[in-house]
Design brief:
The protein is α/β, with parallel strands linked by helices and 384 residues long. It is built from ten helices and 25 strands.
Length: 384
């Protein structure tokens, strides 16, 4: 057994000092008044002890991308994600032609299995977030318009064990029957890349949508007479809302409003893309030119291509612009995303019986050490 001491524990309902976090066999054993005699002691040195972060919308970074369908790249990304505090993730595919999507799904299926082994040494792959191809061409954003198609459950059916989350536009032809059938199989449906009216969005929620993809982005703007997809998602308690908290995709002036409106259904994401963390300037991304300019990633015509965000920075940005306590913002990057895709029974918080996905950080959530399922995969410290 291992016990982390001398740290502030970030729990679902607050911060706790002066107690020890015990974990063994890959799971959290308990929160104790004192370490278990004979346990291996890990000194947090006054830092924070946080649950690992869960990113349910991330495409790639540093030249790698889930849409390449490459198991080696998924492994490499998993290892690097641990450096930024992400301990589980959904590799997110772009809107691609179906044969290429199947190649990606196959690689992710293998990664889901491989990431349970000690040799993986990185963030666990929980499944795939398929961002399309069943979306509205009018709101395709950075997606490939030629690869968009009408919803077809028969195509998805062989992959429902892999696709944990899927972005769909509820207003397109055949979407509602597709949403109902997919939801029945356990796939979480997300509204995105959509031109839906509020009533069309509500019909999608009634059919089984429980999630909104990068809220505000690739949706009609909120209007006081036609609140549209944004208004419906913010108003409906059944729906989790993603937020790219990079201060570029959505104005920080709205962060507090979203926190007050959505509460425990606000989910921080990165939407990081292949060119993220590369030097500023033009880069090739799957045959398209994307220009990196600090936190901004755009196509030459100015269209936003994605982000270069990491989950730890998302937490810092959100906290800085709202003043909310760290434990509450960490929930938005751990427990709430896990809950939004049905993984809260084993991920997302420092509760006994859950996977020992643990971070030691400083006061601003700069990551010092990372454990995934009880194995230290990033950082070094005093263990005795």
């Amino acid at each position: 057994m291992k016990c982390i001491v001398n740290g502030t524990l970030l729990l679902p309902n607050g911060e706790v000092k002066g107690r020890a976090l015990a974990f063994e066999g890959g799971r959290i054993a308990g929160i104790l008044d004192a370490p278990v005699p004979g346990a291996q002691i890990i000194d947090a040195k006054g830092g924070y002890v946080s649950p690992g972060l869960v990113d349910v919308h991330i495409h790639g970074f540093m030249g790698m991308d889930a849409s390449n369908g490459d198991l080696g790249e998924l492994r490499a990304m998993s290892r690097k994600l641990a450096r930024w505090g992400t301990t589980s993730w959904l590799p997110t595919t772009m809107t691609l032609r179906w044969p290429m999507l199947e190649k990606c799904f196959d690689a992710i299926r293998r990664a889901m299995s491989d990431s349970l082994s000690e040799e993986w040494r990185g963030a666990q792959v929980l499944g795939c977030h398929a961002e399309g191809p069943f979306i509205n061409p009018a709101k395709k954003g950075a997606q490939d318009g030629d690869a968009i198609q009408r919803p077809d459950f028969d195509r998805l059916k062989p992959w429902t064990d892999v696709v944990r989350l899927m972005t769909v536009a509820p207003e397109v032809d055949d979407a509602l029957p597709f949403i109902r059938r997919a939801a029945e199989t356990g796939v979480t449906l997300s509204m995105g890349h959509t031109a839906a009216t509020a009533n069309q969005a509500l019909a999608g929620f009634d059919a089984g949508i429980t999630h909104a993809t990068h809220t505000f982005n690739a949706m009609p703007p909120l209007n006081h007479r036609e609140p549209g997809a944004v208004g419906a998602a913010l108003s409906d308690d059944r729906v989790y809302c993603e937020l790219i908290a990079d201060t570029f995709h959505v104005s920080p002036l709205l962060y507090g409003l979203m926190a007050r409106q959505k509460g425990d259904r606000l989910v921080l994401i990165t939407d990081s893309i292949q060119v993220a963390h590369l030097p500023d300037g033009p880069h090739d991304q799957s045959g398209q030119t994307v220009i990196v300019d600090g936190i901004r990633c755009r196509f030459p015509d100015g269209t936003i291509a994605g982000s270069s965000l990491t989950m730890d920075r998302a937490v810092r940005n959100f906290r800085r612009h709202t003043g909310l306590p760290l434990w509450q913002v960490v929930n938005m990057a751990s427990l709430y995303p896990a809950r939004s895709v049905g993984a809260e029974t084993f991920k997302g918080s420092l509760e006994p019986g859950k996977d020992a996905d643990i971070l030691i950080t400083d006061g601003d959530l700069n990551v010092l050490r990372t454990w995934v399922r009880g194995e230290c995969v990033f950082g070094a410290g005093d263990e005795a």
